[in-house]
Amino acid sequence: MATLRSKSRVEDAVGHVSLWRGRAARVSPLSGGLTNENYLVETGGERYVMRIPGASTELLSIDRGNEVYNTKAAASTGIGPRVLEHIPELDVMVLEFIEGETMSAPALQSAAMVRRMAESFKRLHAGPRFKRAFDMFRLIETYLRIVEEHEVEIPADYRERLPLVAEIERAVRVGALPSVPCHNDLLCENFIDDGQALRIVDYELSGNNDACFDLGNTAQEASLDDELRAVLCEAYFGRMDRRQLARMNLFALMSDVGWTLWGAIQAKISSIDFDFPDYYTTRWKRAVAVMKSERVDGWLREARREGP
Fold first, then answer.
1. Torsion of CA 46, 196, 179, 244, to 10 degrees
2. How far from chain centre, in Å, is Cα 249?
3. Residue 105 and residue 221 in contact, taking contact as beta carbons nearer than 8 Å
4. For residue 232, what are the CA distances in angstroms to 119, 122, 229, 241, 286?
5. How far apart, in whole angstroms, are the C-alpha atoms of residue 236 and residue 246?
6. How many alpha carbons lie under 13 Å from residue 32 in its C-beta half-sphere?
7. pLDDT tier for residue 83 given thresholds of 50, 70 and 90
8. For 171-217, what is each residue's pLDDT tens digit?
9. Domains and CATH numbers, the chain
10. Which DSSP helix (H) or strand (E) runs through 155?
């Protein structure tokens, strides 16, 4: 249930939006957001999504100006939702409501859906450049400083794994691709099937990045097995590229490494009713299991390999 404080924030935001000024508006919460509050607003036979930023999200290195700019850029590709109104003083956005099915991991775990994901990525990545760059390795450094400054609890063995993180960074730089506009935070629920394309929403962590980060990140979020990861790689690049597949897998691992810190910080600052400690400990256990395995050594060798 919403707190009185969050209710007043919603009422304040609704009152600032010119799209429905003077008309009765029905407002209901949308589930799924782990950082922001999202609401469905129904008025005059139309439906909109109103997005209100969560508390203290600057500690997650989220730049709201960057989010608005990038959301508009992504909308121009037909993949992102249109920004219908922006209230700068409140950092509130009113977005196009996309009719369609919100995806889940099981819904995305087929070769046909993976190929559709690749098509959406290609459209997004070919679109206008985003405002800022995104680099998970630098974000981890930023998050670790925030962890120190705010006495955030993280897994006890996290820093012991940082030498391997540095080795992974060196390996993925060998076959680095030119940076393109990337989403960088592809939870399955950020895909909406409108019947024509898999639309992609929520651009708060978006930035120009190596395409393989988006591919690896979504492979991890959707729990794609090796076969489907290979399908995603081939569909995106037009051929099987084993070095880029290895880079995808290393970036998938880095998603767990980086979002572990995100979850730990959220556990400290977030007012959202969600079990963030379980979220980040689960991600970290999965990351450690991979880092201890022989698979990561194979990916490192393949990522460093010269030639196609």
1. 140
2. 17
3. yes
4. 10, 11, 5, 11, 21
5. 14
6. 17
7. very high
8. 999 999 999 999 999 999 999 999 999 999 999 999 999 999 999 99
9. 4-96 (3.30.200.20), 101-304 (3.90.1200.10)
10. none
